[in-house]
């Protein structure tokens, strides 16, 4: 893998020859691909009409024309002659930090905007599924096609932790399961058609819950036997809705099996492991993980690190071993949302994990001298002397560090662009 450094520029600064990335759904722009080198002024005009203020581009892959070439009339040229005063080291450092912070904030805003759009689409699906099942299917498939454009693109997709305000509980769970399932499907080298079925099934795995009373939509330890039975029927309701939508047999099977276990201890049919489909195995595992991190009662939530540990030590027989192994390898020891202590004793919050280099995540570090809103995300992959020493529970943090890092009570994940993948080298990031 080669690290392609990207940065954001104003759309007014676009030039022919720049290699740009459109961080938006594939249906939200007219271009056949979402990253390409600008080859004409008409492309620039189209990009400027999309309503974006900034666009991400890769200087290392760009060969932009000069200002004179893109402005042949010279009307916009600045003819004022100025003397060049060398910048001081402190000035350069301050400018670079400001640029990094702006890029960081822009990248997070893109993630949150895309998440919000996806969550709204999911809500639209649930609103129309009874009256317009065919339209609900089309909306879901379009949404997953957009996700696949990010997951299967040239760049690696990392898992990014978003703010808690990003989504309400129902969409948050479905989105988390879909995001992580697609990345796991890619790690398991599923084909594109199977990835589409996986994404649609993951997004709709709990769709049957819309047929339940509100108070029964989230599993509760205090349910009576009859309430638990009614809750379990969400699987049957989901299959019936999937049939109305005319989903593929493989997708319907996923919805039917997302609570089945490899040791035949699941429900509703106690299907043994060899009869559980590959994409059902993925969603069953990811669903368990997210339910541990984001239970119906937030007081019972455990950290992502604890969730992985619990699945491996207590629930391992429930899951297909190769799928579980790939999942733990992809998420890393410290998934996004983990609170950690670094080797220099400082505290940090893991905010992004690249599946190719999971032991070197991106973190926000508690630095009292820097305001929280100005804290830079540090990529530990580039820190030769700094790494993670141990995972902590949020309540183990000193109060100042807890207030600064603000550990999430509910974890919300989405895709974040990682590194550019080269086709002529090995993965370079295997453990």
Summarize the SSE layout with pairings.
Blueprint: E1 7-10, E2 19-21, E3 35-37, H1 41-48, E4 54-57, H2 67-70, H3 89-128, H4 133-151, E5 155-161, H5 169-187, H6 192-203, H7 225-232, H8 234-244, H9 249-257, H10 278-293, H11 304-314, H12 321-331, E6 339-342, E7 347-353, E8 362-365, E9 377-379, E10 388-392, H13 399-405, E11 413-420
Antiparallel strand pairs: 1-4, 2-3, 2-4, 5-7, 5-11, 6-7, 6-10, 7-8, 8-9
Helix pairs in contact: 3-4, 4-6, 5-6, 5-10, 6-9, 6-10, 8-9, 9-10, 10-11
Q: How would you explain this protein's 3D organization?
A:
This protein is α+β, with helices and mostly antiparallel strands. The chain has two domains: 1-71, no CATH class; 102-420, Hypothetical protein af1432. The protein has helices at 41-48, 67-70, 89-128, 133-151, 169-187, 192-203, 225-232, 234-244, 249-257, 278-293, 304-314, 321-331, 399-405, and strands at 7-10, 19-21, 35-37, 54-57, 155-161, 339-342, 347-353, 362-365, 377-379, 388-392, 413-420. Strands 5, 6, 7, 8, 9, 10 and 11 form a seven-stranded antiparallel beta sheet that branches. A four-stranded antiparallel beta sheet has the order 1-4-2-3, covered by helices on one side. α3 (89-128) packs antiparallel against α4 (133-151) and α6 crosses α10 (278-293). 39% of the residues are buried.
């Amino acid at each position: 893998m080669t690290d392609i450094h990207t940065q954001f520029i104003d759309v007014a600064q676009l030039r022919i020859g720049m290699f740009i990335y459109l961080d938006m759904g594939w249906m939200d722009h007219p271009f056949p691909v979402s990253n390409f080198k600008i080859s004409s002024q008409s492309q620039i005009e189209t990009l400027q009409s999309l309503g974006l203020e900034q666009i991400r581009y890769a200087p290392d892959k760009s060969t932009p024309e000069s200002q004179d070439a893109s402005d042949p009339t010279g009307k916009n040229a600045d003819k004022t002659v100025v003397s060049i005063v060398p910048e001081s080291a402190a000035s350069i450092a301050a400018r670079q930090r400001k640029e990094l912070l702006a890029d960081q904030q822009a990248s997070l805003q893109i993630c949150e905007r895309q998440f919000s759009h996806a969550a709204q689409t999911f809500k639209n699906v649930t609103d129309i599924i009874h009256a317009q099942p065919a339209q609900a299917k089309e909306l879901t498939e379009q949404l997953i096609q957009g996700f696949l454009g990010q997951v299967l693109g040239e760049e690696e997709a990392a898992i990014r932790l978003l703010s808690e305000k990003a989504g309400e509980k129902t969409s948050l769970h479905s989105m988390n399961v879909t995001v992580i399932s697609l990345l796991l499907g890619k790690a398991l080298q599923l084909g594109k058609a199977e990835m589409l079925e996986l994404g649609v099934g993951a997004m709709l795995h709990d769709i049957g819950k819309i047929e339940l009373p509100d108070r029964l939509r989230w599993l509760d330890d205090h349910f009576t036997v009859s309430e638990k039975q009614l809750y379990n029927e969400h699987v049957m309701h989901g299959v019936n809705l999937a049939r109305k939508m005319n989903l593929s047999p493989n997708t319907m099977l996923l919805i039917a099996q997302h609570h089945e276990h490899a040791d035949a201890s699941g429900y509703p049919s106690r299907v043994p492991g060899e009869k559980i489909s590959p994409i059902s195995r993925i969603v069953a595992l990811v669903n368990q993980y997210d339910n541990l991190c984001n239970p119906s009662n937030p007081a019972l939530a455990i950290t992502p690190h604890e969730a992985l540990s619990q699945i491996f030590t207590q629930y391992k027989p429930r899951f297909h071993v190769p799928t579980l192994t790939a999942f733990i390898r992809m998420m890393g020891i410290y998934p996004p949302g983990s609170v950690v202590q670094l080797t220099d004793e400082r505290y940090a919050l893991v905010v992004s994990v690249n599946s190719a280099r999971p032991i070197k995540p991106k973190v926000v570090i508690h630095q009292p001298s820097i305001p929280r809103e100005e804290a830079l995300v540090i990529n530990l992959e580039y820190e030769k002397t700094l790494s993670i020493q141990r995972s902590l529970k949020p309540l183990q943090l000193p109060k100042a560090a807890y207030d600064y890092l603000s550990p999430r009570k509910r974890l919300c994940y989405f895709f974040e662009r990682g590194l550019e993948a080269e086709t002529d080298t090995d993965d370079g990031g295997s453990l």
